[in-house]
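Thread title: Can someone regenerate the structure for this chain?

I was given the following input by a collaborator and told the matching structure tokens would be attached. They weren't. Posting the sequence so someone can regenerate them.
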Amino acid sequence: MKHILSFLLLVASFLVLGQTKEELIQKMIDYNVFESDCVGIVCSPSEQFNRFEKLKSLISEKELFELAKHKEPVIRAYAATELVKNHKEVIQLFSFEINKNENVETQDGCLGGYDDLSWIIYNAYKWKVALKSITKADTIDDVRNEKISDALAKDRTFQKLDSIVLHSDKDLYYMFYHIILKNIKIDEYLLPRMKELALKHNNSFAFDCIADKYPDEVKHYFEKDFLRADFNSPNKVMYLDRFVEYLLESKNENYKNLVVKKLKKHNYWRKYFNTIEQKLEKYQVVL
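Best answer:
Regenerated them for you:
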């Protein structure tokens, strides 16, 4: 069986080598998954990744830039990450994908799912900076993490990517805010934007940054705005999840009733992944 698999992979490699760039692009579109170099539990070589490696050898840098604006997300994902590796137009590529706000099916080793292209580019650049900041001699986790954090904090391009996220009004992947707001200092310049994200865009990660600073506005938000706030998306429901926790933690009976009213009024939260039911159970709340 092992020899048969090796033979099939060899045949597949020869087939890839004989294809034109147009054929390779179409094959990538047909397969439509953004894969790392190896996939699955045993980390088998990815044909999709190999298609792109072959495609790179057939196109110019100008064509690579053109592919980074291709209509198909899977093509953009490969082209953009390749350009990011070479520090080419990182901010422009990221801004483009923030505005497009599209995702693609992904497979990295044995981990699969769907990722926003902006998140793919963000992490590609993040790990480019991170890996440059450490060496093989850095074997202690705390030392490695400190060096990586310091490198990211000083990197102007990475700071700009964070700023683009924080000033966007798009419904972006919620993990952006979890990561960014955990690692930056909220100064007087940024505070008004955090307030806007929290109280106008219902972003719970921003809310956690401003709740203690604006108690009157927070009280008004829950009394007047929370019940009609829109949390109907996979990202927004994660904000609702955190707001439910905040309200129930307060042990305020009015806030508890507000949670019940909100969750009964809008049932959409049940169709997305969240931990709201576990929180209701924890605080013995029945809808």
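The chain has a mean pLDDT of 92.
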